Amino acid sequence: MSITHIEHIGIAVKSLEESIPFYEKVLGLKCYNIEEVKDQKVKTAFFMVGQTKIELLESTDPEGPIGKFIEKKGEGIHHIAFAVKGIEDHLKRMEEQGVTLIDKTPRKGAEGLDIAFLHPKSTLGVLTELCEDKNK
Ligand code: ZN
To answer: What's the 10 CA to ligand 1 centre distance in angstroms?
Structure first.
């Protein structure tokens, strides 16, 4: 098992435009990238905190995963993402351990990372993402 660090924390917000000023003006972080992930029906804004990112997620479709999350729970922490090496091996091993995988094979997420989600019913209620930057 080689989780190297927390890659990012995903936070669901209603509006990037209304949320970014809190992170920039109050927390003093700098938004360095805004990117739409069509696949996930979200627009994302990224801030670097050490080697960990804050990923703000705004839904582009009320039927998308973030749209549904906000409707049910409101704004707040949506998921935690661990950086790993050998994401396919991790998924295989976790599945063998009885973890329910949302993604059995990695797909492309924001910033060109390979990502896969584990089901929160297998992870004590925390939606958990694995990420691997294969360009590194
Ligand atoms: Zn994420």
So the answer is: 5
